[in-house]
Description:
The chain contains four helices and nine strands; from the N terminus they run αβαββαββββββα. It has helices at residues 2-6, 24-30, 66-75, 145-149; strands at residues 13-20, 40-48, 52-60, 80-85, 88-94, 100-102, 122-127, 132-136, 142-144. The strands form two sheets. It has a five-stranded antiparallel sheet with strand order 2-3-1-4-5, with no helix packed on it. Strands 6-7-8-9 form a four-stranded antiparallel sheet. It is an alpha+beta fold. Bound molecules: zinc ion. Zinc ion binds next to loops.
Amino acid sequence: MANKLMVEAIRTGTVIDHIPSGQGIKILKQLHLIEGKQKITVGFNLPSKNLGLKDLIKVENRLFSEPEAYQLALFASSATINVIENYKVIDKFKMVIPNAIEGIFACPNSNCISLTEPVKSYFSVKQTNSAVFLKCKYCERSFNKEIVAGV
Ligand SMILES: [Zn+2]
């Protein structure tokens, strides 16, 4: 309960909680949240039972699109998303790294056929202990998630 009081409640919007400490700033940049007009409240290095320290982001009047949810999953797979309406959590879900990502990121390989042919990009997602790789279906090259997401 103490944690909840540290950050002002929002009427409508999205709260991204349980972001691994240090990833919050990346998510703000990657989702271009600061460039928008929404009111954003962030908490960095907040105490967390499970993570030790966590980051938290509250965005007013904003729900996340599917591509944004995927980007969140790639960079903060432990995060939970709380959808708030009238100060109440009406939906809550945990981020899950998808097995495949279709039609969201362009292939970083400039010779890849997916860039010139009318096809949707398609990456299968492979996880190792320390990293997440995305493998393009068309050129069969694997890329670090940061390269594919352009961060
Ligand atoms: Zn490719």
